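Subject: sequence -> structure tokens, single chain

Hey, anyone have a minute? Need the predicted structure for the following. Not urgent.
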Amino acid sequence: MTDRPIRHGGRILADQLAILGARRVFCVPGESYLGLLDGLYDHRDKIEVITCRHEGGAANMADAFGKMTGEPGIVAVTRGPGATNASNGVHTAFQDSTPMIVLIGQVGTDMMDREAFQEMDYRRMFGEMAKWVAQIDDPARIPEYMSRAWTLCQTGRPGPVVLALPEGTLSGEAAVADLRPVTPPRAAPLPGDMARLRDMLKGAKRPMMVAGGPGWNAECQRLAGEVALKHGLVLATAFRFQDYVDNDHPHYAGVIGIAPNPRLRRAIAEETDLLLAVGPRFGEMTTQGYTLIDIPNPQMPMVHVHPGADELGHVYAADLLVQSHPQEFLEALLALDATGDRDTDWRAELAASFIAFQKVTKVPGDVNMGEVIRHLDAVLPKDAVLTNGAGNYAVWLHRFIRHRRWRTQLAPTSGSMGYGVPAAIAAKLENRDRVAVALAGDGCFLMTAQELATARHHDAAPICLVVNNGMYGTIRMHQERNHPGRVISTGLTNPDFVAYAAAFGMPGEVVTRTDDFPAAMRRAMESDAGYLIELQVDPEALTPVQTLSEARAQGEAG
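Reply:
Had a minute. Here:
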């Protein structure tokens, strides 16, 4: 037996992270996990520690890192308030199926169950928003727990795992062997599954493949394009998975989500005779509030492919359920012989409808967000990363942009506000040569804008586009539709956003006319310190197809 060095728990934990290949830890430092910080000091040449200004920002950065890389996003926070602040990003990772490991300092075991300072039961707190929640009470078991956490957060349906770390675990010493890293397993389709799918494809005239969910990568994007051409499939993407498919692909028909192309919606609900879902859960946003596909028995022949067994049959009793990682499935599908007689006119009509849907609409005011997004589409590099949180402003982005490369979109399917700025910073940290643009409403931006300090500290400043209409626009829209004229709680008083950014060393300007945006964007792309553009839009310009007044009239009409 080899000698086992005696180490304190914080060093043991940091050593395991290094062995597993962790490259970055997002955190707000806390006294409850000083031992881990001390351990990370010895790995500072391999593991970059990103000091954030709020645990919500740190957790969202970790989620964005996990989305971009497929690696677990690591976030470390202190007990009590640190954990509750981070819960926003943990919930996003859970709903978005993002691999994440959350390390939380905890009170000493000798003080538990007394409501000690900042004491919480994390099993109860995170029990419904994590794949696994555990507490490590013995420093000698840290390698065991970390091995399980690293594998579990990446396998099946990926998601966050939470480990509570009592102070004694991190300060206590142990002589223990390091873990041995393993490659997380990936499910693959059975030969019988593919044989049945071949028969289903043979009889389909209007097959459609919808991409989304966990496990996708650049190779999956390439394979999806080849599969569509070989088997004559229409391509679509689920809500906020637009970069899973090259949007310039001749078979691409658009995204199914909030305010989708009505033609695409009808094609799914009424016309396709084989719906092949590769990865998406088909949650509320993608299915228009669970109205697009009948439950539990879909109205069309349906194949559901997902890496997590528990997700298959969860809502939809599809005709064929395939537990598989998307890459393994797409490789197997590409290997099948092409069969069947396709309705090429239908496919071409849907592709043309997607292009027509991107035609900019007329809206009130001097700034047309449709024109703004189409300009971004024209001038940004193909590998530029666009991020957003939640709000009506995101409808413009999703409708008028085209994604050509894998992981050029970072957005929460959980619909969490405040995601865009941390996500863009995470994207810049991963590759400082890539352009990262964070879009945010005036309400969304201020939820995490303090992370501009993190961007400056780590030299990872994005371009920020703040869409300012002086209100929580989405809530105002629903307010008018459901309680017309009874406006309360949705108006906002905003700071000078350009001055705010300048306080963090980020230059910027205000744009009040669409024609002024191209020059502003050029200056933003030339800046080495990031840039903020405040876009002052008319509150009446609620969506590309409905004004605020029209929303109120809709509500008054009942």
